[in-house]
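Bug #77: duplicate submission created two jobs. Keeping one. Sequence:
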Amino acid sequence: MSSPTSNKVFLNLDLPPGFTLKNFIIIILFLVGFYLLLPRIIGLTQTLQLLLHINKFYLVLALAAEIISYFGAAWLLGTILSRLGHPLPFLTRFKLGSISAFTIHFIPISGIGAAAVDYQLFKKQKVDSGSIFLIWILRPLFTYAGFFILFITGLILVPAHPSLSFSPKFISLLIFVLIIGAIFYLVLLYRNKNRFRLVWDKIFNFLNRVLHRFKKSPIPESRKTQIFDDIYLGVGLFGRKKRSSVIAIIGALTYWLGDIICFYFIFLAFGFHIQWGVLLFSYCISTVLGIISAIPGGMGVTEGSLALIFGAMGVPSALALTATLVFRFFSFWLWIPIGFLSYLSLAKKN
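Kept job's structure:
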């Protein structure tokens, strides 16, 4: 196991807490092995035929769309930072947005380790601790607001697909009703602060029981209250300025749409025109499954669920899996070294 001293020697630069050369080698070996196994999974002949006839022009467009996705992430972060009184240059925000692809793989304890890296880098940019906590609340809030707008759009478009069976249409309508109901409930809950606090206490009491079961330290009462107050403060800042909220949601939509359009161009690169409702529905469902799995980046879960859902919706299985893996290379694996270089750039001491 590497020591902190060996980490400092590696490249002679500040490295995120917990990062070791061993982590890096394991991930690289996993990715190489995954691609070596790909022909065995879907058949060598089918794989070669698909890859040999791929349209490189659409691959370039796919890469451009993925870059636009990270522009959206930088746009969203810039809107939040400006509202909090900490404007940062675009390039700095772009680097901060790209780091997550690296940290979720190489930093221990998943989100906690990534949050520690975020905190370190924001402090280097002279952002105060209170604003950093608000960023942690507002950025996912707007990000997933944009996600659910696209998810609902996909749920509306899927039933209109003429060649789908009744089951996907019924499931999409059921999910649509559940999401709309959940959104209305959250809005009503937020408007009734006392009731929201009661629900909040129940959630944290449940989490503390789970932590106690696994012999972990409980969340202190002061921390529970601080997060609750930060949510109201953060939402209130944007609630009083609707224009900032709209701009933030547009930034979030750009982030998700760039990723989805990248996927669309990859299907076109293989000569397949996928219906937008099917693409949106499959993408959003697999994203939710990846989040629920708690596996960093949803690695494995996202790929497998995408291939299965596409196959169930009429996409040829070999094409579904090959396009999914190429998409994940563009949208996720490619950004791991970019995120690492971004971290080194921002963490480097002046």
